[in-house]
Amino acid sequence: MNYCSSCGNSVTLRIPEGDDRERYVCVSCEAIHYTNPRVIVGCLPVHEGRVLLCRRAIEPRRDFWTLPAGFMENGETSAAGAARETWEEAEAKAVDLQLYRIFDVPHISQIYMFYRCGIEGGAFGAGPESVESALFEEAQIPWDEIAFPVVYKALKEYFDDRRKGEYPVRVSSIERLRRPG
Amino acid sequence: MNYCSSCGNSVTLRIPEGDDRERYVCVSCEAIHYTNPRVIVGCLPVHEGRVLLCRRAIEPRRDFWTLPAGFMENGETSAAGAARETWEEAEAKAVDLQLYRIFDVPHISQIYMFYRCGIEGGAFGAGPESVESALFEEAQIPWDEIAFPVVYKALKEYFDDRRKGEYPVRVSSIERLRRPG
Lengths: 181, 181
Ligand SMILES: [Zn+2]
Ligand SMILES: [Zn+2]
Known about the structure:
Ubiquitin Ligase Nedd4, Chain: W
């Protein structure tokens, strides 16, 4: 951030009075420009025991498989956002959404919220950000080609929970991944 | 938003290519400036069966009682943010945090995340945004002086859940309140 979005003058990083951390503050109008974590909402859609995954048509992790998810928009609920993303990426209508898994990803200031859901009519397709979508049995999941750690972990937990017949809502943190080598 | 925070030129509201809603786009550098919902994290702190509430020293809802909560900051987890707010507003050290209640508040583009927690040593005080803090038995809760609908609802549910001995994680949406009159 270089300029004030209110008045167009320069901003400087400083600790405002009464605050305890640096913010971008306008040198002219003194507006404080906060930046906050972003919420990513998505679904874990299941139809007849199989999970719907999308193969990404875009970077990052192009050609890897993911659950439909994306940035929550202003004015929507987290569930509505998760259903919207499922429609946009997998052309599937999410039904019976149940909050399932929350991940904090503090090093990139994101929170993921995944809902379990059904798929209306079992119908799906591929939106503009997906090469294809497909339903996978547990044994067919392409574990080595999953796009993101949060997706891998949510899927592993889902199949474990399914064996137990219980789907508790969990929250945990994903730390920065160390690259091998 | 009037100006581009990257280059300082004007922004205009338009639908970027491949998008489906209006964004602030810079007329010069073409940066797209997204705005997204903000996350408010807080605690429902309990010590020896009593719930810790803070009486607000600031607007909105000055002098009304609330649970300690505030905007999640970049680089922290939701639980760390909830504990931070509990320290800042009630000078209480939150321990044993358990995710409890999520509220979508779409008309103001916010998500609340409340954690149940204990209070280390039962010690608390009042931070700069609080007039005072106090522990309340259920029968003592000042129900007519609760600052926000999400706090009222979380407290009601907490006491109901306590009677059942189960604390399921819930998510629901709070719609715009109609003013009487
Ligand atoms: Zn300014
Ligand atoms: Zn610009």
